[in-house]
């Protein structure tokens, strides 16, 4: 979140007049205590002034499944 807001500040001058006004309004609301940090962040996202962060991709590591295999057996035993 911090990095996104810093990047927005760095590219502020390249934004259009309307976008600059929107950013200035939202940041002022935060600085004046009208909105919290998370609300500011979500507003910037909603207004598409900062990009939506990509989700973390989870990869399944089959080596880590071994400790959990006994659970499958246990659950199967419960159903029989």
Give the helix/strand layout.
Elements: H1 2-10, H2 17-31, H3 37-46, H4 69-79
Counted by DSSP, the helix tally is: 4
Structural class, by secondary structure, is mainly alpha
Structurally, the number of domains stands at 1
Into which percent range does the helicity of residues fall?
A: 55-70%
| Parts with pLDDT < 50 across at least 5 consecutive residues | none
Q: Kindly estimate the percentage of residues that lie in beta strands according to DSSP.
A: under 5%
Radius of gyration computed on alpha carbons: 23 Å
Oligomeric grouping of the chains: single chain
DSSP E strands, number: 0
Key descriptive features of the protein:
mainly alpha, 80 residues
Verbal overview:
The chain is mostly helical. It has one domain (2-79). The protein has four helices and no strands. The radius of gyration is 23 Å and the shape is elongated.
Structure summary:
The chain is an all-alpha fold. It has helices at 2-10, 17-31, 37-46, 69-79.
